[in-house]
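A sample copied in:

***
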Amino acid sequence: GRLPAARTKVLILDATQPGQSWPLGMLRNDFARGLADLDAAVAAVPNLVVVSSSGPDQRSWESPDYGETFFGRAVRDALAGEAADANGNGTTQLDEAFDAVALRVQTLAR
């Protein structure tokens, strides 16, 4: 079935860790570029928000301390309540969580 058009849908992708993989025959990881090519298709889905860990020619780096990517850890932390209610309305909005994830990734990756 189809999801209701009025319902907000959030797709979080963290699929760009390997830059290449000879065993898989992958000379270059073009996932983010392929995702960017789908912008029109994504925009055609009402209330769909797609968040990706990286853009074209970027990687989502794994943290040896966490056993997951910095992005994955930041998303998990935000969903666990560490994202601030920046506008003070009593609810953490998606854009506030996204801002918190971006800041947390920058902090963790240093």
In short: The radius of gyration is 16 Å.
